[in-house]
């Protein structure tokens, strides 16, 4: 703030607090009569120029007032974009933006957005203006994956406000006036503007890791190294540091795997990179603090020896509780390609049916084993089985050459059950399980009871709608292993239907509509054992695969009373998935033994 005591604009203010200013640069420049948006933006641009000039002069002069504290200069550059749209940005034009130094003027390089409106918003911004600003921030969340929040400066009438968008909501604070209504101007008016500019100067001199990012990105560094205390109680708390050059312990942010980004709520960014000379994926996830951390789920799966899940090379928390959300990172082994892409690429013309049969059987067996072990050993339900979450890799060397490795990924929507039924009445097992969960909850900084309650409340909402089970589509409040297996059933059919250049038949079972209607249509499509494959886009398949899919259908939708899919719509507690003889050809001995436990 002392740097602005001698700003050029205020040198003429040698009058009393209550005496109007009748001359000087304010009146000559007509700065205080910015009555339209064009004049307001021109005025703001002039203010910034004066501020930058004065800050440079003050910085050269050394520490202010013998305090020993130097005056900082902003490294960010303000650019006018009222006419030219920022590349990669939203459909709306930003008025101004502060950009990182030495980089292009694209959405990737925007530090702070500046929006200008001639009218003053006394207490509430109008809907149109807020939707424009919200569109800006959503574009930045998509483009800048190290963001912790998006700041927007709103210049409205005489006032400058700061709006901060987190993953939770928006927060609004008044920075102060930048001008006053036409008429007499007093010295205290000048002082209030000077204080506003001092506050603005403070904001635009903060380093990026202190204002909007979890690491320093101003110099364009594209490599991150994560550091955490492996020996302390806070083992999962970590920091991230950006580097210009890679080494064996850094990961790159350059190869981004596109995912849908919502303006609010959960968010995950995924990058394909290398780490310790291995091909890996880096996942940065924003999760509500009352939901289950994905890293904690992987830790539980590892401790309970669940098969066919990806190896975690590193994980931790970068933000423990940032406005109601946590930010975690995961470095996971590269598990190959999604099941639908693998089958479509290898069998695009549906040739070599014997090999296709073998691959599909391997995928089903491996996935079933993973889901059953997770449920029985770890008390975990995946809840989001989809074509993108079953990964397949072909082994090209060694003793396993020609075989497949199958991994179930993306456990971010998993639910840990508080269920003693799998403990077989053994108090020691129950005690050990609870102690394990308590230890994981302590390390990952979440309240286990709160998380279990919230995950249960989200049972009807969690998953990929195309592969949701009939009970979940119908709004079931409780989920079980059968729901995950039913999702696998749809994944197999959808992947097979995609093997050709186009889907065979009419895939009514996969047509999108509201959830309850889709549940009813799906129940109808599955009612005929002879025709259901055609209703899911499969006109022809081998006898082996037809038998597999028919067995899964019977396991899921037929019990001693007959066909039950329609019953599941009105009563999700209808007993199903208990006749193991129908799956005996598709699970190994250990999985059969585990399936002997009933939910």
Task: List the defining traits of the structure above.
single chain, 599 residues, alpha+beta, six-stranded mixed β-sheet, five-stranded antiparallel β-sheet, 21 strands, 34% helix, disordered N terminus
Describe what this molecule looks like in 3D.
The chain is an alpha+beta fold and 599 residues long. The model is unreliable at 1-34 (pLDDT under 50). The chain is elongated, with a radius of gyration of 30 Å. The chain is built from 16 helices and 21 strands. The strands form six sheets. The chain has a six-stranded mixed β-sheet with strand order 1-2-3-4-5-6, with helices on both faces. A five-stranded antiparallel β-sheet has the order 10-11-12-14-13, covered by helices on one side. It has a three-stranded antiparallel β-sheet with strand order 8-7-9, with no helix packed on it. Helix 7 runs antiparallel to helix 11.
Could you give a short description of this structure?
With 599 residues, the protein is an alpha+beta fold. 34% of the residues lie in helices and 19% in strands. Helix 7 packs antiparallel against helix 11 (481-497), helix 7 packs across helix 16 and helix 11 packs antiparallel against helix 14.
């Amino acid at each position: 703030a002392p740097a602005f005591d001698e700003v050029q604009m205020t040198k003429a203010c040698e009058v009393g607090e209550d005496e109007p200013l009748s001359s000087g640069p304010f009146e000559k420049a007509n700065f205080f009569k910015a009555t339209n948006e064009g004049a307001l933006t021109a005025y703001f641009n002039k203010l910034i120029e004066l501020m930058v000039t004065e800050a440079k002069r003050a910085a050269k002069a050394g520490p202010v007032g013998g305090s020993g504290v130097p005056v900082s200069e902003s490294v960010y550059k303000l650019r006018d974009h009222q006419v030219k749209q920022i590349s990669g940005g939203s459909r709306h034009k930003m008025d101004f933006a502060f950009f990182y130094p030495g980089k292009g003027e694209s959405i990737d390089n925007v530090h702070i957005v500046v929006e200008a409106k001639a009218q003053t918003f006394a207490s509430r911004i109008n809907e149109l203006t807020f939707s424009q600003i919200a569109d800006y921030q959503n574009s930045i969340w998509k483009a800048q994956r190290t963001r912790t929040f998006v700041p927007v400066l709103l210049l409205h009438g005489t006032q400058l406000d700061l709006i901060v968008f987190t993953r939770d909501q928006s927060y609004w604070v008044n920075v102060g006036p930048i001008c006053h209504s036409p008429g007499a101007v007093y010295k205290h008016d000048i002082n209030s503007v000077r204080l506003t500019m001092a506050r603005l100067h403070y904001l635009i001199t903060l380093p990026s890791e202190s204002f909007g990012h979890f690491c320093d990105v101003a110099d364009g560094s594209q490599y991150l190294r994560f550091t955490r205390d492996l020996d302390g109680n806070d083992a999962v708390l970590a920091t991230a540091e950006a580097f210009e050059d890679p080494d064996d312990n850094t990961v790159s942010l350059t190869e981004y795997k596109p995912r849908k980004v919502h303006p609010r709520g959960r968010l995950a960014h995924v990058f394909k990179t290398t780490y310790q000379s291995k091909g890996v994926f880096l996942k940065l996830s924003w999760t509500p603090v009352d939901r289950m951390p994905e890293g904690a789920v992987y830790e539980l799966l590892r401790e309970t020896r669940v098969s066919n899940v990806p190896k975690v090379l590193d994980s931790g928390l970068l933000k423990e509780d940032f406005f109601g959300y946590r930010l975690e990172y995961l470095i996971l082994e590269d598990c190959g390609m999604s099941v639908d892409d693998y089958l479509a690429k290898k069998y695009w013309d549906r040739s070599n049916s014997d090999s296709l049969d073998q691959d599909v059987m391997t995928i089903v067996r491996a996935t079933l084993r993973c889901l059953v072990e997770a449920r029985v050993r770890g008390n975990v339900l995946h809840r989001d089985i989809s074509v993108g979450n079953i990964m397949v890799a072909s082994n090209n060397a060694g003793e396993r050459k020609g075989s497949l490795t199958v991994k179930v990924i993306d456990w971010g929507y998993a639910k840990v059950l508080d269920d003693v039924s799998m403990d077989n009445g053994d108090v020691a097992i129950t005690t050990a399980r609870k102690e394990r969960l308590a230890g994981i909850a302590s390390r990952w900084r979440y309240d286990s009871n709160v998380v279990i309650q919230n995950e249960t409340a989200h049972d009807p909402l969690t998953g990929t709608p195309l592969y949701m089970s009939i009970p979940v589509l119908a709004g079931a409040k409780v989920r079980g292993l059968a729901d995950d297996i039913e999702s696998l059933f749809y994944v197999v059919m959808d992947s097979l239907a995609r093997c050709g250049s186009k889907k065979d038949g009419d895939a009514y079972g996969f047509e999108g509509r509201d959830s309850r209607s889709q549940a009813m249509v799906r129940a109808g499509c599955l009612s005929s054992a002879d025709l259901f494959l055609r209703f899911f886009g499969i006109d022809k398949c081998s006898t082996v695969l037809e038998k597999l899919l028919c067995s899964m259908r019977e396991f899921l939708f037929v019990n001693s009373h007959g066909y039950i899919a329609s019953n599941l719509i009105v009563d999700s507690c209808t007993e199903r998935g208990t006749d193991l003889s129908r799956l005996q050809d598709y699970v190994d001995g250990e999985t059969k033994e585990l399936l002997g436990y009933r939910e």
